[in-house]
Structure formats: C-alpha cells, structure tokens
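Record 1 of the preview.
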Amino acid sequence: MKKVLIVDDSIAVARQLEKILTGSEEFEVAGHAKNGAEAIKMKQTTRPDLICMDMNMPVMDGLTALRTLMAMDPNAKVVMVTSLGGVGDKFAEALRLGAKTVISKPFDADAVLQTLRDL
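->
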C-alpha cells in the first residue's frame, strides 16, 4: 500500500479524500497537515509515497510548500488539489515547480484513484 500525506486546511475536504483513499485498499493515509508548513515537517516524519496538497491554505500555501518540498526531495510525488475555479496560472506554476499533476474539487473518486495509481 502506498502512503499518502493529505494537506488541506479544510477538515471536511481532508476527510473526503481520506475516505476515497482508504476505501480503495491501495492507499493508506500517513497523516493530515493543515498547511504547507505542517506538510514540510510531516514529510520528514511520515515519509509518504505521495502528497496530496491543497493550493490555497493559511500560514503557508501549497505552491510555497511545493517549492520547499521539491528542494528537499526532487523525487517527491506531489499532487496539487484545487477547486475548479482556482486553476489557471497556478496550475502551470505547480507543474513547473515539480507537481506531478493537479486534481480538482469536488472529487471524482474514480478519477482521483486512477491519477494516484498512475504515479
């Protein structure tokens, strides 16, 4: 099973993503961080195979955290999460910074699982 770190300031969104992942029996949730700063600390302690990280969060946003995570581990597999309206330039920037892809909220469970399987 692949370990996934979920990074989102919304507990409801994090729980929804956790339910999708654990229901598949292919993924386990390594932990839940509420912002990018927590994600950076938790990556070192939980050693996840994948990180699903929201772009818009307080304290440290997802793109700032992505820069740091990729500097720490250029092979990190980070999937950015955003609402449908929030893509645009941030989508391109996330890919440029090293994100593997971007998934949109609201989640389509099958699409999320297939995206993560493909990594």
